[in-house]
Amino acid sequence: MNAMLQMGGNTVLSSPKGYVTVSFDRSNTIDISLTAFLLTDTDKVQGDSGIIFYNQPNGPAGVATLLPSENAGNTVIHNLQFDLSKAPAGISKIAITLTEDNHTGFVNVRNLKAQVRSGDTVIELTPSSFSKENGIVVLELYVRNGQTKAKSIWRGFDSGLEGLCRNFGVEVEPEEQAPKAVQAPPVKEPVKAPPAPEKKIVLEKVKGKINLDKGQKSIMIEKTPEITATVSWKTGTDYDIYALVYTKDGRQVDVAMFGAAGVPPLRKFAGGAVEHMGDVGRNSFSTKKEVIKLRLTNDILAVVPVVYSAQSNGTGSFYRYKVSMSIDNHSGTSVTISAKNANDNDRIYTCVPGILHNTPDGVIISPLELYSFPNSEYRPMLRMGADNMVEVVMDAGPINNYK
Predict the structure, then answer these.
(1) pLDDT class for 284, splitting at 50, 70, 90?
(2) 172 — pLDDT class (breaks 50, 70, 90)
(3) Phi/psi of residue 106, each to 5°?
(4) What local confidence, expressed as pLDDT, does residue 316 receive?
(5) CA–CA dist 122, 194 (Å, integer)
(6) What is the pLDDT of residue 190?
(7) Which of 47, 165, 241, 340 would be a feasible disulfide site paired with 231, CB 3.0-4.6 Å?
(8) Cα distances (angstroms) measured from residue 377 to each of 18, 119, 263, 342, 364
(9) Which segments of 309-395 are extended strands (E)?
(10) Number of separate helices (H) and strands (E) present in the chain
(11) What percent of the chain has pLDDT over 90?
């Protein structure tokens, strides 16, 4: 369900967790940053940990996480993941703010808009015009009488980050004009993908038939010229699989037989380094399978197979239809990850069984068994996490095309 929220209006969210997306037209003359403030009932932060920004992207206990910004054509997109059910004691509100760091003002920002995605609801927020403001409170997420709510603010400050910080009780150093203990460099360099992992990961290679469950340690298998990732399920519904590929230069490439918003279908990547072997469609077989073929090159850091059941296909439970993924190196080793922790919720449409990391020593397989929010058809996103290992963020990517 989509809804518009006018400036000053508020609405109840169907879930305490979700995503805030802010987008605008790219320009060489503007530089916009997103900062979130974790606030008490008095609209003040409790300390430096209450400021979420590009140098400190993770809030305490997972209440808020700033994801890497991305470009989609001529549009710049900032994403913030939130879960107010994880708010530390005393925190009842998240204020989402923007600053224009080149001090040209938001009057020069084109097609500025915000979106809140929570549960099965997408809320659109569009501001009125701005003039010389270079700091804006876009919206607030807060808990009132046990309900999670969103309020459209779009209030501007002429004093940019300093004005926002003072407004929320953050001490500002006079010379730096930046939050205390947050030493942001005067010029932000473009975010570059980290180099391939230098720290050697020591895992004994396994052979034979292996079953992995969520929570078990990662394993390593021999990297052969051709590896297949096969997803199988009992007949009764129509699943599709696709693969997210993370490259050394920090790109995510989606290999899928169907597209998503701004992402066209792509059957194979890099001349067949990752290749979808075809959609099985609907048939009468007792077990259905779809296959992703991998011929891993050094430019690929990780591959994440994704299992998807579109709303248009009807309901479908990953648990009920016994969905599993098997990784086979065709040299005597196969690893199976089953959706054992799924429930019978027919409104969960995306499952990520596990992730494959491509290393010089072999292929590391980690069981994840991650699921999307109910009623969400947004794709996962990949990002570089701790120890130069790729991470999966559910529901943070583009929405799948109608199938």
Answers:
(1) low
(2) low
(3) -75, -5
(4) 64
(5) 33
(6) 43
(7) 241
(8) 13, 11, 14, 17, 28
(9) 324-328, 333-338, 350-359, 362-371, 381-384, 390-393
(10) 1, 28
(11) 46
